[in-house]
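Quick check before the chapter quiz. The format below is the same one you will see on the exam, so make sure you can read both the input and the output lines.
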Amino acid sequence: MSRAVATVRQPAAAVSLLRILRPGAGLPALCVLFSLLAMGRSFGQAQNVVSIEISGNHNVRTETILQAVTQTKKGEPLSETKLQADASAIAQMGYFEPGVVSWDRQARVNAYAQPVEGGVKVVFEVVEYPPIEDIAFRGNTLVSSADMKAKMTLAPGSVFNEKILANDMVRIKNEYRSRGYIVDITDVKRLAGILHAEEIILSIQLVEGWVEKIEVTGLVRTKMKAVVRNIVDTVAGQKYDDRKVLADRRRLLNLQLFEGQQGVNVRPMPGSKPGAVVVAFDLQEARTGLLNLGVGYNNRDRAVGFLEATENNLFGLAHRANVRWEFGGVTSYELGYYTPYIDSKRTSLTTNIYDKWLNRFVSPEFSAITQLASTRNERRQGVDVTLTRPLNKEETSSVWVTARAEDVSGRFTEPGTSILLKSFYTEGKVNSITVKGLMDTSDYIADPTGGWRNSLSLEKAGGFFGGERSYTKYSLDLRHYTPLGNNVLAARAIVGTSIGDLPLFDAFIAGGSETLRGYPEDRFWGRKTVLANIEYRVPISGKQERKVQAVGFLDVGDAYGGVWRTSDNSVIYPAEHQRFSPRWGYGFGLRFNVGVGWMRLDLGFSQEGDQAYFSFGHMF
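Here is the expected output.
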């Protein structure tokens, strides 16, 4: 335990006072020597302070030290309490080392009063720390010595200061944290100078944070190897890196096996040794299976219905499988399978096989000729296979390649129109390859709250790939998500164009729940498109979990340009808009997290009326 002792330089007729002074904030003991001299006056009579001096300083300016002396003042009676306070303030400046008096090596300031003409002279005696010749770091590999020196206030040529050193150590730790690392400072030594004996070399020993072990909790259905081996890059023995840990968390989130953002928590904790870090992944699995069944009856088709099943965590390996079967008036099916990682490069594989019917609004095809609007049952039979490979370890950039082979045909739903308008069918076989580059810094693909998600794609059909149609489509899709407290401002812009023999069934479209709300599905068709969407998303239940959100939106855009022919070449019919003619839609909606994804309800308004939409997943 540190101690402080006060002694008195006692000339004739002097009176000595002894006081124990306890330092604060962990500073070593402060010794104050204080003498009050009677000088022929009565015992205890206060003496006025005539002057205040600093003794023992060589590099720290006297004026700097005197700024700490705020209680003891010239012309006022000498106060032992004030003298002690000023001595403590000087000691806490950090410039002075213990040993100011030989008989108490813990003392930092020797404060005493001497009799002079007219009163007493107050003297604060100190011993300075030596100047710094150089600063040497040991154990650093992630941050250079030069960068750490640049963050410090202490520098070669300055006087060593314990208080400034403590702040500099915090700055060094903060510099490591700003770069995503952790560091422990295990030792600071003052070594003898090499060039100047009266100076010191400040030696700072660092232990950079390293991963001692990985802990994963909360897995029930998901197999550990699906998470640790395939998803988590952080491994025991390597240097701790925030960026790598956050990338691990992002990959776990994007598996969509857990309860949203709150279902994947990462906690770096101190390990058993200096610099050791235990990285804990606390996971909460979500419901990953969905089964839908619908059955109805009508006089024409008798029993009709559908069966749909989805599983996002097949075999506990994060594989996804989905099947949809419609029966009755129209029989169709869709089968899909997704494998997240098929090789060490984290290449994913998605395969879809389908024979499905879509309802397409087709008045632009023939309204100029027949003045008849209708919908068409469009049949698509085919298969598509997509390979996705990340281009960097963080998986913020990737390339997608999709091969598609599809046969498209159709029929009109209005009675009699299938025969009357048979020549207006737009059908054919398409073989194509699509290459897409993606830059994705968003935090969570299913419900992003920040970052960008931008893509540029090119689809080439026909030619070398075969098929009955030969064309090329180019698309640019830009998305940004801005967090505003718990709310999110989401924005998207799409630009697309095409060249070649683009069939109407593969034309760009605007209108409906995925493009331009407030208008019917597929309202506008064309060889080009320009779209912009803005959504303001507000969580209204479980603001941290974001399971229910209210959304206000504004959409603007168009699909335009192009001329098509009937299948018998008897009629030419142009797109409704040959030039960009923006149409506006606006409205509001709700989003519900139903465990296996998001359910979306929107009500849109436009100059053509209002439309309600029910779909799954965010629009973007």
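If your answer matched, good. The first helix runs from residue 62 to 66.
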